[in-house]
Amino acid sequence: MLLNDEVQLLRKVPYFSRVDPCKLKLMAFASERVCYNPGEDIFRQGDLSDAAFVILRGNADLLVNSGGNEMKAGEAGSNSIIGEMCLLCDAPRAMTVRAVTEVEALRIAKDCFFKVISDNPRISFEISRALAETLRGTTARVESTPVRQPAEAF
Amino acid sequence: MEKNLLRYIWNHTRQQQVWILAIVLLSMVPYFMAFDLPKQIINGPIQGEGFESPDAREAFLHFHYDLPLTGWAISFPGFQLDRMSMLMALSGVFLLLVIINGLFKFYINTYKGRLGERLLRRIRFELVDRVLRFPPATLKQIHAAEISTMVKDEVEPFGGFTGDAFVQPTMLGGQAAAALFFILLQNLWLGLIAAVMVAIQVGIIPKMRRRLIELGRQRQITARHLAGKVGEIVEGIDTIHAYDTSNFERADIAHRLGQIYKIRYDLYRWKFLVKFTNNFLSQLTPFLFYSIGGYFALRGSLDIGQLVAVINAYKDLPGPLKELIDWDQARQDVQVKYEQVLEQFDPPQIVDPKLHALTTTVTEPVSGPLCAVNLSIVEGSGARVVENVSIKIDRGETIAVIDNSGGGAEAFAAAIGRVIWPASGKITLGEVDILELPEAVTGRQISYVSADSYFFHGSLKDNLLYGLKHAPMSTVSYSGKDATARRWEVYEAEMAENCSYDLNADWIDRHTTSVLRGFSDDLKQSVLRALDAVQLTSDIMELALHSHLDPEENPTLAERVVEMRHALREELRKQGLANIVAHFDPHSYNVEATVGENLIFAATGKSPEAEREFIEHDYVFEILRIAKLYDLLYEMGLTIAENLVEIFADLPPDHPFFQQLQNLTAEDIAGYQQFLQKRKQAKGKAQITEEERRSILRLSLFYIEPRYRFGVLTRDIMDKVVAARDLFYTNLPAHLRDSVERYDPHRYMAAATLRENVLFGKLSHRSPDALTKVRTHAARVMHEKGLYESFIALGLSFDIGSGGRRLTLAQRHKLSLARALVRRSDFYILNRPLPGLDRRVQEEIVKAVLDFLREQDNDPTIVWVLSNTSLSRMFHRVIVFDHGRVAEDGTFETLDKESGIFKSLVA
């Protein structure tokens, strides 16, 4: 897969869809292309957040460890970006991401990611929008969830 | 030491001085004979005196001497020779005398030289010996660089003076007295005039020179301070740069040089003024002879013949006199220098040399506890840091010492380590004051470590084993030339009263290692375990991996490393990790390496910059042409340039992404942009210079496909590059041949580091934790192949630089602790040995060190001054200092229960 192909794939990531391809090429160039075998961890819960990943090919599981048990919290497929939220708020990894199939990803290092964001207002706008949408989704879910009243004691 | 240099010289060279004086007197005989001989030759055979008739003969070697008072006579009739034979015989005698005189001179000069050099050696050794015996308080006030210039430069003139110290004044004094006596014989009154003038000269000149001596003293002190300052600048260079004070230092140096200049200039002026006066005074005497003598001669009261005789006799007086005055000048000069030096080397207190006596045998340990008795310690500033403390430390205890406020704990530990001498009270080991015990006892039975322990220039291993080098443990038996050389060495050392311990002997005392089970590997085990305990092993492994091993010096190890290389490759393959390393294979293209590296395919043993330069060598371009790669790579370079320009063109030059380009800068990109534009405008008809071509080719040469991902590296190019490797080597010019070592999977590459030799490939750009994975497997393979110890040994040969500066501060602290752990002691006094390490590491190390030392069978005492009070729970006993007094002393549990200072410190 060449740099130009990566750029094409990056454009399919919602954050980057409206960004000038030339900038994306720069970002792709400044990032590392990494491969993971099935079963390999891309990052682990609690690790320092040092990079965001864009999955170019393959699937990965998002796992959350609570009380010693790993629970699957979701999946990530090609063209999805992972690890960017923890990067933004400089928090440790909130979940473990494990490759299910062979995964090819673009590893965008922290400095690089921030530099690209600050150079392209478009991206920060897209990120804000994505965040807002997530937040709205969460609020909607909370609102639509019926609040269970404790059974009255007779 | 002796206060007067002349007396010092006399005391140490008395016999030699008398001997050389005798030789000098003896040498006078042929010297004066040679004076008289030319006259004899000219008057005799040449002018024919006594050879009036052709067959006249004269006696050769005829002499007659009457012994006075006895009436006996010694005589020799001589040989009868004719005129020609006489000429030849006398000329022969002349030649013989020339040779004899020359030999005398040669002997006298060498003898004096040797005398001087021996004295110089003696005095230097004595000075350094005194430094070794200085009490700690004195050492704190002196400047290392000043002391070294004193030992090296300031005593230097003493050597030159020694040879002449007594011979010169005796000879010259004799000559001058003889000359004066001769004048007196000729005419009493004129003689008295001469004597008065001499008296004036001898009286005034040295007085005038007093100023010279004072200036000389100032010059010596300022020069010494200059040396100290320069030393300070070198040592404090980091601080100077950190605070931008280099110009302040420049001003300081310039000011000092100005002072020195002024003093030296004054010195010159005085010197020549004195010279002028001296010359004037010595010429005044003849003036008096001419005027007064002449006056009386004209008046007829003085015989003219007498006057001429006096004037003739006088010409022998000024020479010796001047030299005598010069000698006196030199004497005063060295005397002042000597006093100056002595002042620094004569502290009021000095360690008795008996305490430093060499002890080769294992000293009988002084049994009994270590006690502080009414100990008070005063700091350099005069503050009392420990007051009236009495503590008893028994064998086998582990004691944590902590400070609530003040520096009592540290000072207490330092006093046990003899780094500070108590102001009152004492520390005793088995009832004896440790300052009165020989160092062979205290320096072995007690191991003291503090954060500012010093390292000596040398390898890590030398420094680690430094604590075992008390005395030569073996005698080296020399044979042949070496034996002669050694005998000479010992003889000369004794002549100068230096010590003659053999530096080539084995100084490592193998009976005092901490691990002591009677096996031959005790020393090795001690070292390895100590390094483990202080967590230095991985650092040393890292040093080993970055070091260069000489396969000619160590062929077996090199061979085994190559074995390990293959084993690691096999192991990675088995683990399904073959893809994380791209190995160097002579017959295939290494995709993780640059095109240039693939062509040269060699270890260059150089810095990356130098290697880059090598890749751009003319010869490389020549080979590209021959291999028909030149145009292909040029085309490839154009595409790379286009891509790079597209990506980077709009970025400001200081954009951090430019760091992604290892060999390119923003200016380079701009250059490529211009070039591409020019080419486009000319529509392929542009004149492209060789330089432009090369700059494009350079892009191709540094291209790595998995890194850049432009998709420009074709199969065809790769094959051609691999094929060009042989070509590159067959025609390699001789001067380049030595700087490259072609990759061969079955050979050790001397030009590459150990790590490169083990890996023998490039880590994949696409595997994010390739390094960690390779490390894990490599470590296992290394252990399996039994290479661990060899690698550690290689790491231990690392040169730590002056003062250990090539190590980090944390590494130095750990090394200093390890150095104490290697040796067997009854008391380990660890005075905040690990400041600045983080809590977790500190805790681990304290635990490991305690475990390691407790494990040994000598039941050592450990006294640890902790900076991290919470670690005190690992010790049996805790002593808490507060304002220089012992506030609490007890087991951790009892102190923890009481609600005293300790509780508040630990909580």
From TrEMBL, chain A:
<dbReference type="InterPro" id="IPR018490">
    <property type="entry name" value="cNMP-bd_dom_sf"/>
</dbReference>
<dbReference type="InterPro" id="IPR050503">
    <property type="entry name" value="cAMP-dep_PK_reg_su-like"/>
</dbReference>
<feature type="domain" description="Cyclic nucleotide-binding">
    <location>
        <begin position="15"/>
        <end position="134"/>
    </location>
</feature>
<dbReference type="InterPro" id="IPR000595">
    <property type="entry name" value="cNMP-bd_dom"/>
</dbReference>
<protein>
    <submittedName>
        <fullName>Cyclic nucleotide-binding domain-containing protein</fullName>
    </submittedName>
</protein>
<dbReference type="InterPro" id="IPR014710">
    <property type="entry name" value="RmlC-like_jellyroll"/>
</dbReference>
<dbReference type="Pfam" id="PF00027">
    <property type="entry name" value="cNMP_binding"/>
</dbReference>
Automatic annotation (TrEMBL), chain B:
<dbReference type="InterPro" id="IPR036640">
    <property type="entry name" value="ABC1_TM_sf"/>
</dbReference>
<dbReference type="InterPro" id="IPR027417">
    <property type="entry name" value="P-loop_NTPase"/>
</dbReference>
<protein>
    <submittedName>
        <fullName>ABC transporter transmembrane domain-containing protein</fullName>
    </submittedName>
</protein>
<keyword id="KW-0472">Membrane</keyword>
<dbReference type="InterPro" id="IPR011527">
    <property type="entry name" value="ABC1_TM_dom"/>
</dbReference>
<feature type="domain" description="ABC transporter">
    <location>
        <begin position="370"/>
        <end position="907"/>
    </location>
</feature>
<feature type="transmembrane region" description="Helical">
    <location>
        <begin position="176"/>
        <end position="205"/>
    </location>
</feature>
<keyword id="KW-1133">Transmembrane helix</keyword>
<feature type="transmembrane region" description="Helical">
    <location>
        <begin position="16"/>
        <end position="35"/>
    </location>
</feature>
<dbReference type="InterPro" id="IPR003439">
    <property type="entry name" value="ABC_transporter-like_ATP-bd"/>
</dbReference>
<dbReference type="InterPro" id="IPR039421">
    <property type="entry name" value="Type_1_exporter"/>
</dbReference>
<feature type="transmembrane region" description="Helical">
    <location>
        <begin position="87"/>
        <end position="108"/>
    </location>
</feature>
<keyword id="KW-0812">Transmembrane</keyword>
<dbReference type="Pfam" id="PF00664">
    <property type="entry name" value="ABC_membrane"/>
</dbReference>
<feature type="domain" description="ABC transmembrane type-1">
    <location>
        <begin position="69"/>
        <end position="326"/>
    </location>
</feature>
